[in-house]
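ARCHIVE RECORD
Type: protein–small molecule complex
Small molecule: S-adenosyl-L-homocysteine
Source of inputs: curated submission
Record status: active
Notes field left blank by submitter.
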Amino acid sequence: MRKFEDTYRHKGLRKKLVDQLREKGITDETVLNAINNIPRHFFLDTALDNIAYEDRAFPIAEGQTISQPYTVAYQTQLLQVKPGDKILEIGTGSIFQASVLAEMGAKVFTIERQKLLFEKTKNFVLKGKYPTIKFFYGDGFEGLPTFAPFDKVIITAAAPFIPPKLIEQMKPGGKMVIPVDEGEHQRMLRITRNPDDSLTEEAFENFSFVPMLAGKSR
Ligand code: SAH
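STRUCTURE (tokenized, with ligand):
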């Protein structure tokens, strides 16, 4: 049985990571504070313990990745999370992004298409700390019509296009943050669904994500 400990050394490394994120341009203190409160090394293999607080992505199971802290901070900042927000996340992966949202007081509905990664969420070590995260095994292109509408939608895989069903599941005034394919990279977009149902699209930096794939995988 793995023993999960958050030592002073881990906390010190985490503070340094947060300082780096600030230097790289993250200004939302509620986002920085959430990252400062979450032991990222809990989400990684023990072999990666020493480098868990470097600002880089790491492999998890099934050829998937835990996003780079800068990417998580960037997407979260764009999402303008408020306590009580109901948020749909596509791509549960390591659960790190979902934990950041829960730490900020959001109710998180997160979907993963890989069976094994979904099964792993049952043993999530911070389950007790974040009871507001609900896990679903399914295809993110479909969203979660039963639980819609959402205040915010965040896609953490490279989307080939903006999934229409996810737009339908947003509240008026709701926001979506989504990296959309432009060849080798993805452009980070923020879509706002206006009260008259028109959409406002804002474009930000380029990133590199694993692909958003259709259908479920066993
Ligand atoms: N948010 C994650 C990032 C994981 S990487 C974290 O914090 O660690 C992207 C994840 O999206 C992968 O686990 C991949 O399996 C998943 N994914 C890709 N396409 C998907 C889809 N259509 N529906 C749900 N999950 C999807």
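CURATOR ANNOTATION: The domain at 55-207 is CATH 3.40.50.150 (Rossmann fold).
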